[in-house]
Design a protein that fits this description.
The protein has 249 residues and is α/β, with parallel strands linked by helices. The chain has a single domain, classed as TIM Barrel (Alpha-Beta Barrel). Helices cover 40% and strands 16% of the residues. It is built from eleven helices and eight strands. An eight-stranded parallel barrel has the order 1-2-3-4-5-6-7-8, surrounded by five helices. Strand 3, helix 4 and strand 4 form a beta-alpha-beta unit. Bound molecules: 2-phosphoglycolic acid (PGA).
Length: 249
């Protein structure tokens, strides 16, 4: 694994005011010299963004939103949040293209607009890509990934603000996971797709999908990845800490 290891907590539609307190133990861990390599980013629901920003102020932890609207500033879009709003509240990251949003109808074109919006606001993008079970079964994985990357990053010139999160849809929340050999192969393929598009630019790529404190010892062996996007197991600070500790030991 590389210098800094990303541990991105995607809390999805979970969490309340009480759960904000629970991250104290993660903050304490991040202060220890041994875990300096860990770059911890919390992506709570919108309702808690402000609380997380306050709680993590003067710590090494960062905060991100789980989605955004494609329109940059403000507008008549009920229920939506823009990247300007995310930026102004003090978050530095935003997850874009998560399969749970793609499956609700989010298109590659919308994802592209969202990424442009995030970058124009100087936010870091956690760009999710991944095939579903049907696509995997029909050997369409590589074509799907290529399409998601090409269309999602249309007209994007620099990728230093982008963290690629490879999340096979069939692996999210299911406990099913590729073997290390298969995952390594897939990551290399993704890196090559990106290399073709962006030539010499450096890429950050993380893995997501059923990462937990039991399979982490195995997953951390994969040199090609720069960290993990963690859903279920990140909502419990004990489990999250366990994952970080096992990765960096
Ligand atoms: P999971 O979710 O770790 O619960 O599988 C990952 C994600 O959806 O980002």
């Amino acid at each position: 694994m590389t210098n800094k290891i990303l541990f991105i907590a995607n809390w999805k539609m979970f969490g309340d005011l009480d759960s904000v307190k629970s991250i104290k133990s993660v903050i304490n861990l991040s202060k220890k010299k041994k875990y300096k390599k860990a770059k911890i980013i919390y992506c709570p629901p919108y309702t808690l963004l402000d609380k997380f920003v306050i709680k993590t102020r003067k710590t090494k932890l960062c905060v991100g939103a789980q989605n955004c609207h494609q329109v940059i500033n403000t507008g008549p879009y009920t229920g939506a949040i823009s990247t300007t709003m995310i930026k102004k509240i003090g978050a530095k990251y935003v997850i874009i293209g998560h399969s749970e949003n793609r499956s609700n109808g989010e298109t590659n074109n919308q994802i592209n607009k969202k990424i442009h919006s995030a970058i124009s606001n100087n936010l870091n993008v956690i760009f999710c890509i991944g095939e579903n079970l049907f696509e995997k079964k029909h050997n369409r994985t590589n074509n799907i990934l290529k399409k998601q990357i090409y269309l999602g990053l249309k007209q994007i010139k620099k990728i230093d603000k982008i963290i690629f999160a490879y999340e096979p849809v069939w692996s999210i929340g299911t406990g099913k996971i590729l073997t290390n050999k298969e995952l390594t192969k897939q990551i290399i393929i993704i890196k090559n797709i990106i290399k073709n598009l962006f030539k010499k630019q450096k890429t950050k790529i993380i893995y997501g999908g059923s990462v937990n404190n039991r399979n982490i010892n195995n997953l951390k062996q994969i040199n090609e990845i720069d960290g993990f996007l963690i859903g279920g197991a990140s909502q419990n600070s004990k489990k999250f800490i366990d994952i970080i500790k096992k990765t960096i030991n």
